[in-house]
Amino acid sequence: MTLWTKQELISALRDEFVTHNLPDKLSWEASIDETIIDSRKAAKNKLFIALKGENHDAHNFLDQVFENDCEIAIIHREEDFEKFKTPLSENKMPKNKIILVKNTFVALYKLADFSRNRSSAKIIGITGSVGKTGTKEMLNAAFSTQGKTFATVGNLNNHIGLPLSLCNFSKDCEYGIFEMGMNHLGEIAPLSNLAKPHLAIITNVGPVHIENFRNEEEIAIAKSEIFSGLAKEGIVLINQDNKHFEFIKDKALNFKISKNKIFSFGENKSSNYRLLNIAIKSSELSEVKVKTKNNIEISYEISTSHKATIFNSIIVLACLDLLGHNVKKGILTFKDLENSKGRGKIFQAKFDNKRVIIIDDSYNASVLSMHAGLEHAISLKNALNKNRVVVALGDMLELGDKSSELHEEVVGYIQKLKIDFAILVGEKMTLAAKKLDKNICTVFPDSQSASLGIASLLKDGDILYIKGSRGTKMEKIIEKINNLPS
């Protein structure tokens, strides 16, 4: 099934449409399997939308797009239409097939809106300060057992990523899972109104991107914008363990969402989907027991020991119960769960006659995720009967005026959880380290220097947990360990 027909493209663009040089032959039909905005991905059967950004204008790369036999290009520069269009003839197709519109960014949204409205699929929208992408991937795997499912690729969750995802949403899908991210107030509402979810999830609320907000409550307001586009009789799923739960619930009620359509998850005894017990069997296997809204106890195995990931599996179970048709089949996918590089992947390294278990959580960092990661390392230490947990923590970025306070909060977790040794990397972590006993920590200005000193700080049998914001490049430590002589 082609993603877009010629008539659908023209109908979707409506008043944005200017002209085109597509073949008029009844026998010709577009053959499109993906909508793209990156000229480097241009190839046969692709629909390319030439967006103009702050730093780059994709119209400048149309030569490459057409050289790679892109099926159709949507552009808004009239001079490029005249330059690249090829004449129609009775017996020959135009080499460069082009649709000229008034504005390609508006065209992207027109196509996304058309794609959403033509679909009869059940739509799940997900946002939250942490855990969005991991939960989305788990939802994708679980709902693929219920019917044909589409999910946001990677973290395409912003004002360009979400509409692009919708443009790639096949009309025959039964489920669609769309991640929604934001950095400021007012950014999620238009995404939700575009996606029109039947089920809206807020994983949690915490001080992520707080430099753009006055306080956490304002972040909770921004996350609650996901309720604005909720479909009629839509469902809301909220984290009852989060301190902003009641505030977010009130926001849902303000959006005229019925009380009986608001469900909760967590360890809280009054949660509709309640985590009852976790039994860690190994670094990559746990047994979990959950009670559903109907007081039914469900047990399952999941291939992780990370409580945050296990917690997110409750969200997936709840969604299966609320929108799926075979919960048991869906939760079987938890046993095949694989943490990706930088997102909690666990592996063993050997060097200088030392064996070390590494938890690679280096992709990004926030106070919430740091706390969850440190708890995971300690629980793994206890479950595997290891002697030490060593943590390598890099600066958390984008925290604004609260940066010092939040880095000190993380140092407080190190003390509270009795982490055996801490390697703190970056200017902010170095300042916060002053509150730690010098015998249990050391500091480095950057991850490169930390990578050079890491080997001498580790002992045989250690668990090494690594985390930091993307800008700190904490993966350099892992790369160095992997390249040490074994």
What's the number of extended β-strand segments? Answer: 20
CATH structural architecture of the largest domain:
3-Layer(aba) Sandwich
Low-confidence runs: none
CATH superfamily of the largest domain: Mur-like, catalytic domain
Number of domains: 3
Widest sheet, order of strands: 7-8-6-9-10-11-12-13-14
Strand content of the residues, in percent? 15-25%
> What is the CATH topology assignment of the largest domain?
UDP-N-acetylmuramoyl-L-alanine:D-glutamate ligase
Q: What is the name of the CATH class of the largest domain?
A: Alpha Beta
Rg, Cα atoms, Å: 25 Å
Distance between the termini: 51 Å
The gross shape turns out to be globular
Question: Percentage of helical residues?
Answer: 25-40%
Number of DSSP helices? 16
Tell me the major beta sheet: 9 strands, mixed
- Helix/strand class: alpha/beta
Overall mean confidence score, pLDDT: 94
Outline the fold blueprint.
Elements: H1 6-13, E1 17-20, E2 34-36, E3 46-49, H2 62-67, E4 72-75, H3 78-84, E5 98-101, H4 104-117, E6 122-127, H5 132-143, E7 149-151, H6 161-167, E8 175-179, H7 188-195, E9 199-202, H8 216-224, E10 235-239, H9 245-254, E11 262-266, E12 273-282, E13 285-291, E14 297-302, H10 307-323, H11 327-331, E15 345-351, E16 354-361, H12 367-384, E17 389-394, H13 403-416, E18 421-425, H14 427-432, E19 441-444, H15 447-457, E20 463-467, H16 475-482
Helix pairs in contact: 1-4, 4-6, 5-10, 8-9, 12-13, 15-16
